[in-house]
Amino acid sequence: MSCGQPGKPRISKNGLKHFYHHGKTDCSLHPGGESADHLEMKSLVAAAAREAGWEAVIEQAGPDRSWIADVMVSRGTEKWALEIQFSRQDADEFRRRQQRYEADGIRCFWLVAEVNREAAGIVPSAMIGGVLGARTLSLPGPFTVPVISGPDEAIKNLLNHGIKQYIEPVVRAYSLETAMIKCWRESCKRWITAWRLGSLQVETRCGQTGSLLAMHHFDSRKFLADRIERAIAVKVIPILKQADLPAPMFLATRFSKAANLSYLAFCCPFCNSLQGDTPLNHHSVSWRSYVVEGWLPWPISKGVLARDHLCVDVGRGHCSQEPQTPEGPAFPDGKAHWVRASPQLLGSELPPLPRRGERKARVQRRTSQ
Q1: Cβ(178)–Cβ(288) under 8 Å?
Q2: Residue 70: pLDDT above 90?
Q3: Are the CB atoms for 166 and 181 separated by under 8 Å?
Q4: Residues 14 and 110 in one domain
Q5: 216 closest CA partner among 338, 329, 300
Q6: What is the pTM of this model?
């Protein structure tokens, strides 16, 4: 074996020929010998890599023996160390061994058992599932749902497509939050609609669909000099005008005496008066969320696009790994926020905007009952 100890030949249940370590041999590299699970996975990984057109060597040691890869695969100048970890290993050890490979210009990917799910989260990794003789691998998906397949298909996808760091999404639907309020100006007092953008339903270039859900801290979107709604108002306001809602507000930069500053504010479409971020965010204002189906030219921040995922070409190429930094406001804007990825689609969670006459019809039905 790579440690210098003798090994014995064996054929697994799947018919894969390999050598196994003496279980009682005193070895610093493989204490107690390697388990049947570990040996089987090494054989499966090596066989899959060779079928994918790569050279594969089991237990290949570095020139100075500072590392010994479970399976080293190479094609041309590209090298991957595929490490298999069934026993528990802490995060510091994952990081140390990862950096050891990277220092030699070798990419390292980990195949780990459930016991290492949390610790292996700091390195590129996939989860091993199933049982001896019927293994599966779970490669990361962009919307928290892993791509589960047999080791053969998973390793081929990993090597020939790779885990990409960024997604390249197109917005297919989005949520609008609306609130009906009365203009505060005594000479107006008209019902108007406050509106703001919520979350996105997207499709990646590699064909994955899901939602990007924006979470904002309290007051994080108050008194903004610029905001994402400005970039899409020309598309959204006509949609709101067609819904069974009061006239939508428009955006304009105004000076607020109450806030003692200028900001991009929502204004009354009838009297042009600034409605104020503080009143609109008051607990007495009732906001409702609706889904709007359709494409939206919505700039997304680079940080949101950073989502490791298996990127398979479905006829449109791979997701771009050079995302552009938007010049203006991007999703999500504000001072304090985060985004959660979800496999749920907005269209299955939220109602559409009410059509003209729907609210009146509901009131009449309630009255008649």
Answers
A1: yes
A2: yes
A3: no
A4: yes
A5: 338
A6: 0.78
